Amino acid sequence: MPLTREQIAARAAQELRDGYYVNLGIGMPTLVANYVPKGIDVIFQSENGMLGIGSYPTEAEIDPDLINAGKETVTEIKGTSYFSSADSFAMIRGGHIDIAILGAMEVSEQGDIANWTIPGKVLKGMGGAMDLVSGAKRVIVAMEQVARDGSKKLLKECRLPLTGKKCVNTVMSELAVIDITPQGLLLREIAPGVTPDDVQKVTEPKLRISPELRTIKI
Amino acid sequence: MNKVVANADEAIRDLQDGAVIMSGGFGLCGNPENLIRAIHRKGVKNLTIISNNCGTTDKGLGILLQTRQVRKMISSYVGENKEFERQFLAGELEVELNPQGTLAERIRAGGAGLGGFFTPTGAGTQIAQGKESRVIEGREMIFEKPLKADYAIVRAWKGDRWGNLVFRKTARNFSPMMCTAARITVAEVEHLVEVGELDPDQVHVPSVYVNRIFQGTSYEKPIEKRTVRKG
Fold it and tell me: Quick check: A52 contacting B, CB < 8 Å?
C-alpha cells in the first residue's frame, strides 16, 4: 500500500533528532511538524526571521506581525527568537540548519533538484528554496513519485530549471525511501506491500537495492 | 537634529519619477502602509521597487501596480498577485528574481560598503548565467553585486525622535538592512517615543541609518493566510 501524504510526513519526521534545527517547506513538508517523536526538542526555523515556530494560533491569538514563510499565522514557543532576513539566510547558507525538508517537481540521480519554475507558465519566484538546498546540512525531498500528468519525477537529469545542483540527500515518497549516493540511487526502504520492481517502474534511473532493504514503519 | 516629519506625504516630498525604492515587509507582514499609500497618492511613475514580494492584487505594494507606477521589481517571490502576472506577461513590467538570501545579503552588502560577495546559492542554475563564478574551498560560488536605493521605506513597532528603531516579531524581516542601503531612509512607526525611552540594548536599527521618522496611522495589517487551531 502506498503511503498517504500524512504517512510520508510521519516517515520524514523519523529523521529528526533531539536538538535539531529544521526548516520545513510549504505543502506536505509542513505536516512533518505534527509527527515530531515524543520526548525530543526540535526547533523549526522560518526563513522570514524566526526560530521556534509554534502551532497555529487560536482566533484570539492571531497576530498579523507573526507569520511563517508560507505567510500563515503562527505562534511562538518558549525560547523563540526573531531576527532579520540577512541573519536568517546567514543561518541557512552557513550550514547551521540540520535538515531542510521540501517538495520538488523533479530530482535527478545526481541529487539535482528542480522545484521553482515551469518555463512558459507563470513565474512566481524561488523565494528561499535556492538558499535552503545549498545551505542545509541535509536536504530531504518529500514528494510523490509521479506527477499529476503521469510523468516520472525521479530522473536521470532534471528537465526543468534547477533550484540547486547535487544537493539532495534523500527522497521520501509514497513508495520508498531512496538515498542519493555517489553511485546513484539506493533503495533503502519500501512501503508495506510494495516491491522494488514497483518503485523501479516509476523511477527513470536504475535503482540499486540496499542489502539492508526494509519496510517503512510508521 | 530633527528627523520627525508630520506624515507620510511630507516624508516623501522629494520622491521623483524613476526612483529606486526599497520597501520592508514579507508578504503583507511588516509593510510600511502609510508610505505605500503616500507613494500611491503622489503618483510618481517608473519606479524600481526592491522588496521580497509585491503585495497582493489589492494590498501592500500591489496598489502601486494598479496605477502602473512600477517599471521594475527586484524580488524573490511574486506569486499571489494577479495584476503582477498580467503586467509581467504583457511585457509592461520588468522583473528581476533573486534567491531570498541573496536578495537580503545584496542589500546588506549595499549598506555595509561591500563590493559584493561570492555565494553557493544558485550555482549551476539559471541564476548563475552571466555571473562570475569561482571554486572556493571546493565549492562553486557565484558573485553577487550589492544593492542600493534612493529611498528605503520601512515600518517599525517603536522608534524615537532620533530614528532608533525596534521591530516586533516577524515584521522585522528585510527592514533593518534596507535602512542601511538607501540615500534617504524613512521609517513610519506604530509608537513614536522620546529619545531615551528605548532600551539601548534592544535597538534593532541604530539612529544613524534613519533620516526621517513619523507616527503612522490607520494600520490595517492585513493577513494573507489566516490559519487557526481550535481554542
Answer: no
Residues B39-62: tens digit of each pLDDT? 999 999 999 999 999 999 999 999
Phi, psi of B37 (to 5 degrees): -65, -35
The alpha carbon of residue B82 is apart from the nearest alpha carbon of chain A, in Å, by: 10
Please tell me the distance from the alpha carbon of residue B137 to that of residue A143, in angstroms, as a whole number: 32
Instruction: Compute the radius of gyration of chain B from its Cα atoms.
Output: 18
Of A69, A71, A85, the CB nearest to B104: A85
Q: Which residue of A has its CA nearest to B220?
A: A64
- Note the pTM of the prediction, 2 decimals: 0.97
Q: Which of A147, A41, A162, A170 is nearest to A99 (CA)?
A: A170
Active site residue A47: yes
- Its domain, for residue A40, covers 5-215
In a domain, B130, yes or no: yes
- Structure-derived torsion over alpha carbons of residues A65, A66, A71, A74, reported in degrees to the nearest 10: -150
Please indicate, yes or no, if residue B117 is contained in any of the structural domains: yes
Q: Which three cell numbers stand for residue B206?
A: 541604530
Query: Quick one: which H or E segment has residue B187?
Result: strand B182-193
**Which of B170, B190, B205, B230 best probes binding to A when mutated, by most A CB atoms within 10 angstroms?**
B170
Q: Find the residue in B nearest to A133 (Cα).
A: B121
Q: How far apart are CA A157 and CA A172, in angstroms?
A: 18
**pLDDT tens digits along B138-147:** 999 999 999 9
Residue A59 CA to residue A42 CA, distance in Å, equals 26
Q: How far apart are CA B120 and CA A30, in angstroms?
A: 26
**Measured distance CA(A182)–CA(B102) in Å, rounded:** 29
Evaluate whether ipTM surpasses 0.90.
yes
State the alpha helices, DSSP H only, in chain B: 8-11, 33-42, 62-66, 82-89, 100-111, 175-180
Is residue A36 within 8 angstroms of chain B, CB to CB?
no
Contact by Cβ (8 Å): A54, A68: no
Q: Is residue B53 part of a domain?
A: yes
Alpha-carbon distances of A190 from A33, A194, A201, A216, B49, rounded to whole Å: 22, 6, 14, 6, 49
Which of B221, B154, B80, B56 has its CA nearest to residue A62?
B221
Radius of gyration (Cα) for chain A, nearest Å? Answer: 17
Q: Domain of A141: which CATH number?
A: 3.40.1080.10
